[in-house]
Amino acid sequence: MIMGQTADKLCRHAAVGIAMLALAGAVRADGEDFNAMLLEIDRQLQAADYAGALAGAQRAAQLLTDAGNPEVVINLYVREAFALMALDEYNDARRKLFDGLDVADDYRGKISTDYEITLRDLILQFAMQALEYRHGNSAAKHVFKARAAAFGDDSLEAAAGRYKQAEWYFFSSQAARAAKHCELAVEIIDAVSGPTSEQLYQPLMLLARSNISGNRKPDDIRAALERILDLEFASPADGDNARSQALAQLGDMEVMFHDSAGSDDYYRRAWQARKSALQGDVAATNESFREPVQLRMKMPDSPARSSRGAEYFGEGYVIFEFTVSADGTLADVQIAESEPGNDFDIPGMRAMKKAKYRPRVVDGEPVATSGMLFKTTYTIDRR
Asked: What are the structural domain ranges in the chain?
């Protein structure tokens, strides 16, 4: 379930999602102005008064007598769902959104298709926040189907649905499925908007990230990233930022799959593109590349096989200290702290020496960073 800052972030921006559901005029019942009630519920959500927002939505639902206004009913369900989600009542929140879908289905053809699409998007968003993988897979499928049914399988709206599916699959560590749906989104956008449309940026970038995550298809990764360099953006700053991201990823490709030394030019160009986006602000550009980024780390989750009994190992952790070299490899790897200090140190050290990082970039040049720390925990090897 979502907790703390995650819930606050979701619900403080609730009005963004709710605003997509436009009210069809003022509705009154028992002397109550529902528009005013909904505004008060929104204010409570924004102020993180989730219990108050839930109580307000439930009271409004009890007063509602105009059953012929499905938009108001759906708006109430959405607000209840946001409040319930913030209160860690995910199952109840999901049920409210499905209640909203039932209303949208009952009034199909009489209300905007935006209602079903928005509700499907929110169900998927909630699944991501609550780490509900089983429900997320189903929600991802319906996010696309709702758009395709309303606008056609080959529409830009359908491409957006494919991209949302890909986001879910990437989030839930299904890299191959994420890549597949990114490719489908790219095909649609290519056909509708052309091969240099800025609408291709997000699916192309996620396609590259998905294949990088799955350690697969390096040629496809490179092709996707190089396409981004040729996209045409309405905003020059957006174009520079997109190119900076793509160039940095191309540098990462060199570090992970080829000669680390070949990454330098890409990282320099990424830094320059970011500097251009920031209107020449060198300090802000350096801040964007301030920390090394972990690219590959295959750390074992248990100690090496040993003749000693399992009780010897117990549960523990190791903290490694190291330097990220300018070429992304690790140097000066040593154990800063280990508990309980056993045979795990040997395979752990081997894994650290094979790890790869994106180096820090200062004034356009990749540089070494010392004093880096990495902590890993492990469990008993019971084999």
From this structure: 1-131, 294-378
The torsion region of residue 25 among left (phi > 0), alpha (psi -120 to 50) and beta comes to left
Domains 1-131 and 294-378 share a fold: no
d(CA 146, CA 112): 12
The CA distance from 139 to 148, in Å, is 14
Three-state SS at 376:
strand
Q: How far is it, in rounded angstroms, from Cα 358 to Cα 55?
A: 49
pTM metric for this prediction:
0.74
Fill in the amino acid letter for 356: K
Question: Does domain 1-131 sit in CATH 1.25.40?
Answer: yes
* Secondary structure of residue 30 in the 3-state scheme: coil
Helix%, strand%, coil% for the chain, nearest 5: 60, 15, 25
Predicted confidence pLDDT, tens digits, the chain (383 residues): 333 344 444 444 444 344 434 443 444 444 456 677 778 888 888 888 888 888 888 887 777 655 457 777 787 888 888 888 888 887 888 888 888 888 877 777 777 777 778 878 877 877 777 676 777 888 888 889 889 988 999 999 999 999 999 999 998 888 999 999 999 999 999 999 999 999 999 999 999 989 887 767 888 889 999 999 999 999 999 999 999 999 999 998 888 877 666 788 999 999 999 999 999 999 999 999 999 999 888 777 655 544 455 455 556 788 889 999 998 989 999 888 877 665 556 677 888 888 899 999 999 999 999 999 998 877 654 44
Q: How many Cβ atoms are within 10 Å of 41's Cβ, its own excluded?
A: 28
Instruction: Give me the architecture of the 294-378 domain, per CATH.
Output: 2-Layer Sandwich (3.30)
Report whether 251 contacts 263 (CB < 8 A): yes
Instruction: Please give the torsion angle defined by the CA atoms of residues 242, 246, 248 and 252, in that order, rounded to the nearest 10 degrees.
Output: 160
